[in-house]
Structure formats: structure tokens, C-alpha cells
């Protein structure tokens, strides 16, 4: 998807604006790399933030939870919400605490909310979320039971505006500190999946599929 999100008061990056991106591609790339969204909304006049799993299709984010869960009921009562996804890529170790920081990718989106009610729409959203977290796994599994579908709550957030902020630089110290006898640089951080562990009740002879094997070592 090409184009950019409108820059408004709520999504404009004011701190280090040179690190901001408002184009769809930058925002979507970060959303597609993350696994957990921090969802912010208002309950009784107070700010609430809840971590949720999600999936994206075009400019819609699907948020997953139990249908009777408090967060689904509260989101249903809100007209809009704010969602943030952040990935940390390393520590920036400068020659002073002030200039020490992190390498990161962060996307903040704002949008209107809608509870998904119909079975067809809910199954579509559930598949989007599954394909986001476990690509290809949905087609290997049995069909969801009707009671499982009813017990699942899905909220659709249609993105109205958003911003991304990224940092991948080396330390930027005070000029007089560069002669300091203190090591400086970057300690990279990589988030990745490890090695599969068999379920204790796995039947003898069953091996992971190629789809599941492909998830081993996957990086975010």
C-alpha cells in the first residue's frame, strides 16, 4: 500500500522528529514484524493499556481476546483506541548516560473500533491473526468448532492515522567526550524463535510439518 497517513496533533512525532515516518509502508512493516500490541483506551475517564495479539489486513488491525473478557467488553464500548507496537533492536552504549539509548522500531496507530459479530467475518479475522503469528498453520489445523468461535472476541480497528519512529544509529556523544577512555558502541539485540519442543502427549511418530519447521529460528 502506497501513500502516507495524515499528520495530526495526536500522531505527530515531536521528540526527535527526524526519526519519524508517516508512510504506510514503514508503519505496516513494523506492525507485521511484531507479535504483541499494546492497546490503549479509556475506561471511566481513566487510561487503560492492555497487551493483545493481533493481525493486520491492509489498513485494519484485528485484536483477539475471549468474547467475555473484560478488555473485549471495554473496547466494544469505546469508539476509538490507540495501539503501539515496539521492537527493540539493541542498546546504544554512549560515553554518557544522557546519550545512551536504544535502537528500535516503533509504530503507533489510531483508529475506530468495531466488534466483529458475524461468523464469517470472525473466521476471516481469526485466520488473519493466526497467519500473522503462525504463518501457514491455519490450513493444517481442524476447523474451529462453533462454540470456539462464539467464545472468541475480535475487535477490528480501522487505522485513521499513524506514525512510525525508528532509530538505528551509533552513539552521538558530546564532542569533548569522544576522547574519553570509555568504550562506546552498540550491543545488538535479536528476537527470534528457538527450537521446537514436543508436547508431552504427542503421539509416537508424529513429526513437525514443513510449515512448523519454518518457524524455527524466525526473527522479528
Salient structural properties:
220 residues; alpha+beta; Pnp Oxidase, Chain A; 5 helices; 8 strands; 20% helix
What's the layout of helices and strands?
Elements: E1 20-21, H1 24-33, E2 36-43, E3 46-57, E4 60-66, H2 70-77, E5 80-93, E6 101-115, H3 119-133, H4 146-151, E7 152-167, E8 185-188, H5 210-213
Antiparallel strand pairs: 1-7, 2-3, 2-5, 3-4, 4-7, 5-6, 5-8, 6-7
Give a written overview of the molecule:
This protein has 220 residues and is an alpha+beta fold. It has one domain: Pnp Oxidase, Chain A (Roll). It is 20% helix and 35% strand. The chain has helices at residues 24-33, 70-77, 119-133, 146-151, 210-213; strands at residues 20-21, 36-43, 46-57, 60-66, 80-93, 101-115, 152-167, 185-188. It has a 6-stranded antiparallel barrel with strand order 2-3-4-7-6-5. The longest helix has 15 residues, at 119-133.
**Which structural class fits the helix and strand makeup?**
alpha+beta
Unreliable runs: none
What value does the average pLDDT take? 95
Enumerate how many helices there are, as a single number.
Answer: 5
Cα-to-Cα separation, first versus last residue: 21 Å
Radius of gyration: 21 Å
Q: Give the number of DSSP strands.
A: 8
Examine the secondary-structure arrangement and name the CATH architecture: Roll
Name the helix and strand elements from N-terminus to C-terminus, one letter apiece: EHEEEHEEHHEEH
Amino acid at each position: 500500500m502506497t501513500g502516507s497517513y495524515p499528520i495530526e496533533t495526536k500522531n505527530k512525532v515531536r521528540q526527535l522528529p527526524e526519526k519519524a515516518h508517516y508512510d504506510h509502508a514503514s508503519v505496516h512493516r513494523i506492525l507485521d514484524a511484531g507479535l504483541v500490541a499494546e492497546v490503549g483506551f479509556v475506561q471511566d475517564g481513566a487510561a487503560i493499556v492492555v497487551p493483545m495479539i493481533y493481525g493486520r489486513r491492509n489498513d485494519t488491525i484485528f485484536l483477539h481476546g475471549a468474547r467475555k473478557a473484560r478488555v473485549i467488553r471495554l473496547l466494544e464500548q469505546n469508539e476509538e483506541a490507540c495501539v503501539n507496537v515496539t521492537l527493540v533492536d539493541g542498546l546504544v552504549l554512549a560515553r554518557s548516560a544522557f546519550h545512551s539509548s536504544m535502537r528500535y522500531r516503533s509504530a503507533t496507530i489510531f483508529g475506530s473500533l468495531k466488534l466483529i459479530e458475524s461468523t464469517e467475518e470472525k473466521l476471516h479475522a481469526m485466520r488473519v491473526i493466526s497467519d500473522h503469528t503462525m504463518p501457514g498453520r491455519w490450513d493444517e489445523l481442524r476447523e474451529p468448532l462453533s462454540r470456539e468461535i462464539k467464545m472468541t472476541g475480535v475487535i477490528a480497528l480501522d487505522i485513521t492515522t499513524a506514525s512510525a519512529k525508528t532509530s538505528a544509529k551509533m552513539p552521538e556523544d558530546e564532542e569533548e567526550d569522544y576522547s574519553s577512555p570509555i568504550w562506546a558502541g552498540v550491543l545488538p539485540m535479536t528476537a527470534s524463535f528457538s527450537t521446537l519442543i514436543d508436547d508431552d502427549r504427542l503421539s509416537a511418530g508424529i513429526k513437525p510439518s514443513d510449515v512448523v519447521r519454518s518457524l524455527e529460528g524466525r526473527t522479528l
